[in-house]
Amino acid sequence: MEDEAFSNISGKAISLDCQTHSSFCREFTVSSPKMSIGKVMVYTCSVWLLAYAVFFFTENTAVLSSAILITLTGMMLHIHFVKVDHESLLVIGSLGIQVSSSYASGREVTTFIEMSRIKDIVINEAVYLNQIIYYLCVLLKEPSEPNVVSSVVPLFQSSKPRLNCLAKVYESCQEILSKCQ
Amino acid sequence: MGQRRKVGSTNTPSSQSESADASKVHSRKHNICMVSDFFYPNMGGVESHIYQLSQCLIEKGHKVMYNQSTATTCFHSLPLLRCVFVRERITVVHAHSSFSAMAHDALFHAKTLGLNTVFTDHSLFGFADVSSVLTNKLLTVSLCDTNHIVCVSYTSKENTVLRAALNPEIVSVIPNAVDPTDFTPDPSQRPPDRITIVVISRLVYRKGIDLLGGIIPELCLKHPDLHFLIGGEGPKRLVLEEVREKYQLHDRVRLLGALEHKDVRGVLVQGHIFLNTSLTEAFCMAIVEGASCGLQVVSTRVGGIPEVLPEDLITLCEPTVRSLCAGLEKVIAKQRSGSVPSPTSIHSRVKNLYTWKNVAERTEKVYDRVAGEEVLPLDRRLRRLRSHCGPVAGSLFALFAVLDFLFLLLLRWLAPDRHMDMAVDATGPNGLWKENRKNSDAGC
């Protein structure tokens, strides 16, 4: 159980929480920063000011009410589908890996990968928009062809921690994986 | 958009001791970024040059990374390139080929970022037609504040200096090389009852395929045991097919289509004579490969070709059908009388002429020299552009340089360097892979 200061690729602070349930079972939780009130204000104000400018010329009140609707639904959709509060990775040696991300609205998406399909966990680098980032990913294999990587599952996709954080998760994952092989 | 490839090497004890000795001469190792639009999977002269040079430099303990992209224009590549340069701690940016848009982009941005720049020119240009006038202008602008330029032959140096209005002192000549172990002669592959002429080049106008189309029927009429083996692909393939059709030469002229680099040797050793009909060539790798396989070389006397091989190994002709035919006749006669040197003796003479090790050593010297030079600060760079490239183009590109600098300041503010993770060296002098290779087969 430890908490250390890490940051994500754009320099915002995130926190990593490692929980050791047993020597074969570890859980890593990366929590993103909360949505800042300033950002919400900026987006809301810009939509409303734009709507007011349109209203000033057209004098149609439907513009104003639609602006209110847009900001409200936009905010709801954002917290339900986009904003991820924390992502966790549960590694259970001999059983598999569970990846779950919970959104700000409370929605949770969980996937489970069984051990027989996992080839390895690695840190890879990728071109992401206009920069190059490191990310942690699980390499999958088909049980019929154990030497071929069939697909790649990237981890911590929305929080995008930096290398020092990834390296920490990587090392303890490898510890568990090497024990059960 | 981009595809990257980073290569490292494990230092063997012997190379460590070597680098320890060498460190008195050149104190530091460079991090070099090779930039070009040309890279694997389409292998040509430029591609293999970059690849082989990189491999040799890595052996010397430098860190080389490679950057390639297909479509970029001016500004939008800056964020990505900056990210690459900062992450990999690049000290020297080495751009290749004046056809490559990304090479020019990278030079431009690298100078804005204050990195040392080297440019290698692989081709010759004319001065007359519209496209070369424009390319030459771009080259002038791009090279006027580049630290050092490398050309592959003296002809190419002359050409580049004239085209880009450069000071000849900052232009070096470093030829290309071939890997002699890849191109060894094997006379047993030659069919005994005939004489085979091998041509390997892209089938395009620049390579003089129209001349070849004139030579084939003339020689085939005179010598019934003459066969042609033509490797390569291109728009001028039609010309050769027409010739073959018209004179009914299907059994004597074989068109092999595009060849992979590894298959080239297998084709070369089947022949007795290597023919090169290029109309312009900065440095012809193909004739060195041909000679290294022990073939008699006949070539046109254009560009840098006369510098490449010693006179007794090559027959030079004017780029006309008649002159080339006369040259080929002479070599065929020699071949029949058996007065040509043996393939093994030709190979042993050629194999030490052009080696990548030598190329890498000379390139290293260029890097050492460049690393000691200062990069022009913005104000002097602007003055240089204005004074060197004419009032209109100079001012325009000075404006671009200022905009690029402002864009860089914006990027530094939006995404500061400290938020970028430094790239981890998997192998090489400080490689991480040696100790934890066992736990991770494919990682990090």
Question: Could you describe the 3D structure shown?
Answer:
- The complex is a heterodimer of chains A (181) and B (444).
- Helix content of chain A is 34%, strand content 44%.
- Chain A has 181 residues and is α+β, with helices and mostly antiparallel strands.
- Chain A has two domains: 2-35 and 83-179; 37-81.
- In chain A, a hairpin with a 2-residue loop joins strand 8 (131-142) and strand 9.
- Chain B has 444 residues and is α/β, with parallel strands linked by helices.
- Chain B has helices at residues 13-22, 45-59, 78-87, 101-112, 130-143, 154-164, 209-222, 237-246, 261-268, 285-292, 305-308, 321-337, 343-350, 356-372, 378-388, 391-414, 433-436; strands at 2-7, 31-35, 63-69, 92-96, 116-121, 148-151, 171-173, 195-200, 226-231, 253-257, 273-276, 296-300, 314-317.
- In chain B, helix 2 (45-59) packs across helix 14 (356-372).
- Residues 1-27, 69-73 and 435-444 of chain B have low confidence and may be disordered.
- The interface between A and B is medium-sized, with 24 and 22 residues.
- Chain B: Keywords: Endoplasmic reticulum, Glycosyltransferase, GPI-anchor biosynthesis, Membrane, Transferase, Transmembrane, Transmembrane helix.
- Chain B: Residues 1-24 are annotated as: Disordered.
- Chain B: InterPro entries: Glyco_trans_1, PIG-A/GPI3, PIGA_GPI_anchor_biosynthesis.
